[in-house]
Design goal:
It contains 12 helices and 2 strands, in the order ααααβααβαααααα. The protein is mainly alpha-helical.
Length: 202
């Protein structure tokens, strides 16, 4: 139970921070199932927030302003998590709601950028954003890459391969943060573990 874990973690974490003690057992025991990415849909989940933080730590830049997304720009640029392949486009093209609504298809963007995205295909809205941004092709592709994705898949509206590719890239970021490998063959979600994520409002 979570209450039991908290009771065990608290003294170990305090000792780790205040006395430079050994790392808490929960850090060594931590693991992450690749399938969990499919259940992370809203900011109510701690794991969702953690991945959001990882993306911003990666020198992520807003597509329109090209400014780094950090604590200051989070508020000044009105940053929020938005769909990369818009909901309207996904619905029209038969993409599963579970796929288009999970964190794999979301990224931090300013409200101004999201207004340009609208509900169109990436191949269309990216051209408009680049024109407004006034940057070269190479500069714009590097801005897109800062969001842990492959621009070439967006320009051909290839949701399937975009989804596979970005999932792998996010898993690699998580592995780096945890300093341990994540078995890719893990396909089963342990019953009850992610109930808070599966039951979130979408």
């Amino acid at each position: 139970a979570n209450e039991t874990r908290y009771a065990l973690d608290l003294p170990q974490v305090i000792n780790w921070i205040e006395n430079d003690g050994p790392k808490p057992k929960t850090i060594y025991d931590a693991n992450f199932s690749p399938t969990r990415l499919h259940t992370l849909r809203t900011r109510n989940s701690a794991a969702y927030k953690g991945i959001y933080a990882l993306l911003m730590h990666d020198e992520t830049k807003d597509w329109l302003s090209a400014t780094k997304i950090d604590f200051s720009t989070y508020f000044s640029e009105t940053i929020d998590i938005h769909h990369i392949f818009p909901v309207a486009w996904c619905f029209k093209n038969g993409v599963s709601k579970d796929d288009y609504n999970c964190i794999i298809n979301k990224t931090p963007l300013s409200s101004r950028t999201n207004r340009i995205v609208s509900g169109e295909a990436p191949s269309k809205y990216l051209l408009r954003i680049q024109k407004h941004a006034g940057v070269s092709d190479d500069e714009f592709r590097n801005i897109l890459k800062s969001h842990v994705l492959s621009p070439e898949l967006l320009y051909v509206d290839d949701f399937k391969n975009f989804f596979i590719d970005r999932k792998e890239k996010i898993l690699q970021r998580i592995e780096k943060a945890m300093n341990k490998s994540i078995p890719r063959e893990a396909t089963q979600i342990e019953e009850g573990v992610y109930m808070d994520e599966e039951n979130e409002e979408e």
